[in-house]
Amino acid sequence: MKVVILAAGYATRLYPLTKTVAKPLLPVAGRPMIDHLLDRLLQIDDVDGVHVVTNHKFAASFLRWADAHEATGAPIDVHDDGTTSEDDRLGAIGDMRFVVERARLEGDDLLVVAGDNLFDYSLADYVRWWHGKGEASAVALYDVGDVELVRKYSSVELDDERLVGFVEKPEHPQTTLVATATYLFHRAHVPLVQRYLEEGGSPDQPGRFVAWLVPRAPVYGYRFEG
Asked: pTM of the full predicted structure?
């Protein structure tokens, strides 16, 4: 299994904090935010490579970060997508395609996670649960308990554990269950990213690819607490 950490955004809403520092590299409890994510990723036995996709503005910073973590276990590769601003960014799904093509990950299972994710549940438990689902993909789900909050996220509907509905930033949410940016894509589904984009799918917001995938392939929801 390969990990793809999405870290190519510019986080303009956090200016001036993120004008010179990438959001995943901002300090949280004395360490870069992405360090806390890496701790959880390295608890997964299956992981044999970590790929961080970033923009040209912050590529050097992520390379220094990766060099400082050489001894952690899984090799960390940093991919510069060549963009320099909000105007030419590839979008999260565009960056997924970019790193899959560049690192030749078409035949790998992928754990795709946003670089600014902070959580305390076990990714290793998530992966073990997913292994029991066969040729399926998955998304980590959280119950926010407030319909109004759901409008900011992705609304999810389940039949048992299988997704039957997925709406990005819904106007009229039907549940309080939302998707988080922690996806497991079966190797059979990874090449579908290219098809999704060729069919005109938006390159931004990874949940849009999941919404497109739901009627075409089995996608399961993993409920976590914390």
From this structure: 0.92
Strands 110-114, 76-80: pairing kind: unpaired
73 pLDDT more than 70? no
Inform me whether the pLDDT recorded for 206 exceeds 90.
no
Closest by CA position to 186, among listed 131, 104, 128: 131
pLDDT of residue 13: 85
Can you tell me the distance from the alpha carbon of 9 to that of 109, in angstroms, rounded to the nearest whole number? Answer: 24
pLDDT value at residue 75: 81
Which sign does the torsion angle of CA 75, 114, 190, 174 carry?
positive
* Phi and psi at residue 113, to the nearest 5°: -140, 140
Triad 99, 133, 214: Cα angle to 5°:
60
3-state secondary structure of 56: coil
| Burial track 115-151 (b if 16+ CB lie within 10 A, e otherwise) | bbbebebebbebbebbeebeebbbbbbbeeeeeeebe
> In 3-state terms, what secondary structure has residue 126?
helix
